[in-house]
Amino acid sequence: MAQQQQISLPAKLINGGIAGMVGVTCVFPIDLAKTRLQNQRSGQQLYKNMMDCLIKTVKSEGYFGMYRGAAVNLTLVTPEKAIKLAANDFFRHQLSKDGGRLTVLKEMLAGCCAGMCQVTITTPMEMLKIQLQDAGRLAAQQRVMPSVVSTLKMGGTSAVLSRSYNVSPQVMRVSAIQITKELLSTKGVTGLYRGLGATLMRDIPFSVVYFPLFAHLHQLGQHSSEDPSVPFYWSFMSGCLAGSIAAVTVSPCDVVKTRLQSLKKGANEETYNGVVDCVRKILKKEGPGAFLKGASCRALVIAPLFGIAQVVYFVGVGEFLLGYTPYNIYSA
């Protein structure tokens, strides 16, 4: 068992990385729509719904406008997904070392630990991604309200005057590298972890809900107790269902996280001094319904993302590449 576990760890990391890259590529445009819908305030709504947001994005920014921030996500999604999936397997194995069956409480604890490990990678990635995803909304808001926000015109393209960055006529858009350098020079490494509390508040409950739910749904697809293998389509459906339920459950936390991690603000948009201040201002100015902004988009992002991730993870691409026999800890 020790040898099997040792040789399977690199394979699990490969599985998680490939799963994340494939999944993110497929669902990123929906994630972009989710971010822009969550960030727009009442009375300043540029987009009616997800499809309206995607259509307007393509018209104003082109097809690749839907993939703003994708490079950041793809760069860091490999270690993020590898950590999340492999850490959950590791903690499940540790909690079942006594040979007994994992209880729901232990499964939730394993998911909680996996979520905490994942946040170390997720927080900087999410913050940089949000800045790039929301840039198009701010630019569009400028075009709609030119009298409220100053704009610069160069070649028919408007550049946003950011509160966080000095924009010169030569700089048309802020890149992830620029944002990272500015944060490191002004606030140090802690600047990259802005919104850490909100990210923990979202990702830990998500993992606590998702992993036990997925494990039980996945187990229902086993052929028999003697043959614990599960068809790939069942892994996909289990990942989709568990992911969508967990995503909607923590959607209010995701709204708070998105607002806190948005460095640039549009005209008359609120700034927040922490999780409590953010929740209080949203409730006061936008009502409880604001906490469900982008919930359907988030469910549409997470469902196929984790469905694809689980299929890749359980099919054993990493084991195949390394020449090992697939090792599935869920069947232990």
UniProtKB/TrEMBL annotation:
Localization terms from the record: Mitochondrion inner membrane
Keyword flag Transmembrane helix: yes
InterPro entries reported in the protein's UniProt record: MCP (IPR002067), MCP_dom_sf (IPR023395), MCP_transmembrane (IPR018108), Mito_Solute_Carrier (IPR051028)
Catalytic activity: L-glutamate(in) + H(+)(in) = L-glutamate(out) + H(+)(out)
Membrane topology according to the record: Multi-pass membrane protein
SUPFAM superfamilies recorded: Mitochondrial carrier (SSF103506)
GO biological process, one term: malate-aspartate shuttle
Intervals holding Solcar repeats: 7-94, 102-220, 230-319
PANTHER family: MITOCHONDRIAL 2-OXODICARBOXYLATE CARRIER 1-RELATED (PTHR45678), SOLUTE CARRIER FAMILY 25 (MITOCHONDRIAL CARRIER: GLUTAMATE), MEMBER 22-RELATED (PTHR45678:SF13)
Family of this protein: Belongs to the mitochondrial carrier (TC 2.A.29) family.
Protein name as it appears in the record: Mitochondrial glutamate carrier 1
Lineage, uppermost ranks: Eukaryota, Metazoa, Chordata, Craniata, Vertebrata
GN (gene name): LOC103362804
